[in-house]
Structures are given as C-alpha cells and as structure tokens.
Design brief:
- The chain is α/β, with parallel strands linked by helices.
- The protein has 10 helices and 14 strands.
- The strands form 3 sheets. The protein has a 6-stranded mixed β-sheet with strand order 8-7-6-9-11-10, with helices on one face. The protein has a 5-stranded parallel β-sheet with strand order 2-1-12-13-14.
- β4 and β5 form a beta hairpin.
- The mean pLDDT is 96.
Length: 268
C-alpha cells in the first residue's frame, strides 16, 4: 500500500508545549507539499485555519468537531449536528452544577460567561467566543433550524463523571463524549467519528484513494478508530494506551516534534 494522503490530530499530537507549530514541524510538512496534509480535530474551523496558513495548506479541506463538520474554504462539505432537544437537556443538566458548557455550530462559539474555562480555551485556540445566555442561543438556533456540532463541557472530574453517566443513561444512542483530559468532555454526534468523516472526505474529494492510502497521527480516544483503520497509523509517545495499541507505529511525543520526526524518517 502507498501513502498518498496524510492527516493529523492537533492538540497533543501536532502542537508543541506552547500549543503552537514548531519550526521543525512546519518545515517537515512543507517538505511533503506534494501530498495532501489534512488537519482533523475536535476544534472549530477558525482555531484550525491559522495553523493551515502557517503550513501553506489553506487550499485543503478541514475536518472539524471530531468529524461533525467538514469544510473546504467557505464550502460546507458535510455537517452532522446534535439534536436541539438533546443539547438543551445537557445545558439544563450543567446549569445545576459548576460545569462550564460551551455550544458550537459552524463558526459560532457561545459561552455563558468568560470564566476560567472560557478564557483558557480561548487562549489555547486563539478564538474569542460570543458571550450569551445559552438559553437565548438555543432559542435562536431553534428558529434557525440549527443544532450543535459540539458541546464542550469543562469542570471538575467528579462532576463530569456524573454528566457521562447522565449521557449514558439517557442519550447513549445519540451522542458520545470524548474525555480529552480529566477536566474536558467534548460531546459529538455518535453517528460520526474521525474515521467516518475521513471516509466521507475521501469519497467526495479523493475518490481514487482509500483508507489504506492514508497515514494518520493521533494521541487520544477520538483518534483510536482512525488510527486502527488507516494504512499507516502513528501514535505519539504521549498518547493514551488505547491509541498506541490501535496504531501501527509510534513516534516521539508532541513536545519533541514526533510528527516531524516520523515524516522525516518515512519515505512519503
């Protein structure tokens, strides 16, 4: 099998300790400019586009929200949203706790206030959210026929554990929560994943390629099915055990430029 397209997760995989692209990583990806390099993340489009610009790959599509949204420039290639009633139920649950919940749709990010969690996420992603009562957001989305591409819940691990139980007991057939860290729960439609969205992108824009032609890099739970399905799955050294087990290869950790080191040593 021959690698003809490369995709990479961002946080914990591609970025360094400062949550930026290192000079080494930028150079390694520019050296393989003959091959599509697709960013695939739980992030929203705006928090990925500045990375595309640094890598000179702004002409390529993005897979956002763990696969909930695929965009190519301003064009929406595919969109999968969380049911609005389900979104409201989660917002109501969180309102009785100290959990910070954020709502995302396309290029929209709404937070109830700029607390510790919102400020940290804004700093990490270089995107500023809109501060608005989430009940107003939900009412606006109802009139516009929208749902959430992602619900981000941040807070103490014990409270997030209770939210996970609430989802499992009531909405396990609709949504799935990925624990990107003990204090972060990123909620997406259960019908999509990085693997399924990658398959969709290949079918629509690279029909001559299959998953066996893809090299993918990842580190966390939401990368496992992708790493297991592609031709060359690579886990960074700081990845969770499940991601390492799903991958074909390992490379150095993200803060040691693991993606760049693997690309330099792999004949692509």
């Amino acid at each position: 099998m021959q690698t003809k397209l490369i995709c990479s997760d961002i946080d914990g995989t591609l970025l360094n300790k400062d949550r930026e692209l290192s000079t080494k990583t930028i150079a390694a990806i520019k050296d393989i400019a003959h091959m599509p390099f697709i960013l695939i993340s739980s992030r929203m489009p705006q928090s990925m586009e500045h990375l595309q610009e640094e890598l000179d790959i702004s002409h390529l599509p993005l897979i956002c929200y763990n696969g909930g949204l695929i965009v190519d420039g301003e064009e929406v290639v595919q969109s999968t949203e969380i049911n609005l009633d389900t979104t409201k139920a989660l917002v109501d649950f969180c309102s009785d706790t100290e959990i910070h919940s954020s709502l995302y749709h396309g290029r929209e990010w709404y937070v109830p206030g700029m607390d510790f969690w919102a400020n940290r996420e804004s700093s990490n992603t270089k995107v500023k959210p809109v501060v608005q009562d989430l009940e107003i957001t939900l009412e606006n989305w109802k009139s516009e026929g929208k749902g959430a591409h992602k619900i981000m819940c941040m807070g103490e691990p014990a409270e997030l554990d209770a939210l996970v139980d609430f989802i499992e007991n009531n909405y396990h057939d609709q949504i799935i929560g990925y624990r990107s860290k003990p204090t972060y729960l990123e909620i997406s439609p259960k019908s999509i994943s990085k693997k399924t969205s990658l398959e969709t992108l290949l079918n629509l824009q690279y029909p001559e390629l299959g998953l066996h032609n893809v090299m993918a890099f990842g580190d966390n739970y939401n990368d496992v099915d992708m790493l297991n399905a592609v031709g060359v799955g690579v886990a960074v050294e700081n990845a969770i055990v499940e991601a390492k087990d799903a991958a074909d290869h390992r490379t150095a950790c993200n803060i040691e430029d693991g993606v760049a080191l693997f690309l330099e040593g792999f004949n692509v």
